[in-house]
Amino acid sequence: GAMEEETELDNLTEFNTAHNKRISTLTIEEGNLDIQRPKRKRKNSRVTFSEDDEIINPEDVD
Question: What pLDDT, in 10s, does the model give residues 27-37?
Answer without folding.
Answer: 665 555 555 55
